Amino acid sequence: MAQGVGVGIAELAYLGDAVFELMVRDMLVKRGVPFKDLAKGAKEYVTAVAQSAMYHRIFEQLPEEEQTLLKRGRNLHSASRAKSANVAEYRHATGLEVLYGYLHTAGEFERLREIFSLCTS
Fold this sequence. Notes:
Blueprint: H1 9-30, H2 38-43, H3 48-58, H4 64-74, H5 87-105, H6 109-120
Helix pairs in contact: 1-5, 3-5, 3-6, 4-5
């Protein structure tokens, strides 16, 4: 599986973070969550702890190529770490972000929606 148009794993994680957050915000708005509750609602999904749980929830359901992306992201060493998560949770969250970044970069928008549905169901 190619990384996507000359983009490295760290860059995919960076992009995937934004893609995932946008998808969460879109979901909440479409669900009719009141404006005053949007930030709180997003926080249920957009944290390293929540994303780590999603990683574990979907891993076995993914084809080998996508599992490889999750693992590569998980193994990315970062200088930063989430304040509310341990190192393992932060790394699993990064793996999930790499997958989102890759699918976005590859233009695999339908697959992105499928993965997002698995993560948020």
